[in-house]
Specification:
CATH topology: TIM Barrel
Order of helices and strands: HEHHHHHHHEHEHHHEHEEEHEHEHHH
Radius of gyration: 22 Å
CATH architecture: Alpha-Beta Barrel
Bound molecules: D-fructuronic acid, zinc ion
Shape: globular
CATH superfamily: Metal-dependent hydrolases
Mean pLDDT: 98
Strand order of the largest sheet: 1-2-3-4-5-8-9
Number of domains: 1
Structural class: alpha/beta
Distance between the termini: 36 Å
Oligomer: single chain
Largest sheet: 7 strands, parallel
Length: about 400
């Protein structure tokens, strides 16, 4: 019963890097994009001697060929990212036993983007997805400025990494766009930053604001970032009743020659988040941490603050062993009051594998927990399972957005 209910529950994917078709080239899809996913690029370079520059000089299709040959033909696709490609092809009805990349390409060539979006949503069991929207991105910004018609299944999240993590450059950009900003972050500038944030929240109809942060993120700290969070982000978030989502623990560009695949991880201080939740009880926070070592502390922190919603098994934790461990731990500490997963998909097709794999693991944890309850005489009904599944796969997110503190 849990199986059928979990498989038929519709998901809200709260953090992706996908775009609606209105964003044109920004919406990545298709086998060559799937094969050149940065997770696979990192794995490719572990076993290939190809000079980095030579790889980056190749066309996308050539890169995909090299990755396919290296990671799928010369060895078995055992890693989670490789297995993901197999799940995608298989779920789309392609014959993976043939290992015939040309045949897969030919199939993809017959798809058109609009109906492919429908197919992928259907196969993955998705109701809607949240994009990552960066007003500092020169390709994305004009799409918003011309008020393009966005597929309502794609929601926006205002991503503010450039503002918080690179204030000097962001300040210059703001000036160029007509905001009276100064590097010293005077009160006038803070007001202007609030105007900027508010304007983009409204324009995008953003569901939350978000940032990724390094392992050494602290709060309080003597950096523009802390000042911006306290005097700009949090007041605007309160005004719009939006959560501020913090993704903590990424060590950007540990190996820059790998480009997008070159980021690493380190343990961060959950205490910074704890202080934010305590100091700003009328603000809502969402948080995910990248390091496994932070997961227990994060779950305990969520027990202490109703203004904190923890979410997802992010990036290097989006692997079955960690998802199983983290979801079970969260369930034991928090009941169903968390968001177990997001896909982080960069390529549309990837939501198929990310959700097929995660859905099965969430189901496994629920079956175990319902089993433990049954052993104590508490039999869950079909309606109760349905309700719990809906909470975990989207309801908790939407309820948290509505919540007023
Ligand atoms: O910062 C983020 O949102 C990260 O998820 C990405 O930047 C990262 O590259 C990624 O794709 C992880 O899954
Ligand atoms: Zn992401």
């Amino acid at each position: 019963m849990v199986d059928t209910i979990l498989n038929s529950s519709q998901i809200t994917d709260i953090h992706t890097h996908l775009f609606s078709p209105a964003f044109g080239e920004l919406l990545l899809w298709g086998i060559d994009e799937v094969l050149t996913y940065h997770y696979l690029v990192a794995e490719y370079f572990r076993v290939s001697d190809m000079p980095y520059e030579q790889f980056w000089a190749m066309t996308k299709q050539q890169q995909a060929d090299a990755i396919w040959q290296t990671l799928f033909i010369r060895q078995s696709p055992l890693s989670e990212a490789c297995r993901g490609v197999v799940t995608v092809l298989n779920s789309l009805g392609l014959d993976v036993s043939k290992r015939d990349l040309q045949e897969y390409r030919a199939w993809y060539a017959e798809q058109d983007v609009e109906s492919f979006v429908d197919t992928v949503f259907k196969v993955a069991g998705l109701k809607s997805v949240v994009m990552t929207n960066d007003p500092f991105d020169p390709t994305e910004r004009p799409v918003w400025e011309r008020n393009a018609a966005i597929d309502p299944r794609f929601h926006a999240a205002l991503r503010i990494d450039p503002l918080l993590n690179d204030w000097p450059n962001a300040c210059e950009k703001l000036k160029g766009w007509g905001y009276a900003a100064d590097a010293a972050l005077s009160e006038k500038t803070q007001k202007e930053v609030r105007r900027f944030l508010s304007g983009w929240i409204t324009r995008m109809k953003a569901l939350y604001m978000a940032v990724s942060l390094p392992p050494d993120f602290a709060f309080p700290e003597d950096l523009p970032r802390a000042k911006l969070i306290e005097h700009c982000v949090l007041p605007v978030a309160r005004e719009h009743n939006l959560p501020f989502a913090m993704m903590v623990g990424v060590k950007r560009q540990v190996n820059p020659t790998l480009k997008l695949a070159g980021d690493g991880v380190d343990k961060a201080d959950v205490g910074a988040l704890e202080r934010l939740c305590a100091q700003f009880p009328r603000n809502k926070f969402m948080a995910t941490f990248l390091s496994r070592e932070n997961q227990h502390t994060l779950s305990v922190t969520a027990r202490k603050f109703r203004n904190l919603m923890i979410f997802g098994c992010w990036w290097f934790l989006n692997d079955p062993s960690f998802i199983r461990e983290i979801t079970r731990m969260r369930m034991e500490l928090l009941g169903p009051s968390f968001i177990p997963q997001h896909s982080d998909a960069r390529v549309l097709d990837q939501v198929i594998y990310k959700w097929t794999h995660s859905r099965a693991l969430i189901k496994e944890v629920l079956i175990e927990k319902y089993g433990d309850l049954a052993a104590s005489g508490w039999q869950v009904t079909q309606e109760e399972i349905q309700r719990d599944a809906e909470m975990l796969l989207g309801g908790n997110f939407w309820d948290f957005l509505e919540r007023r503190l």
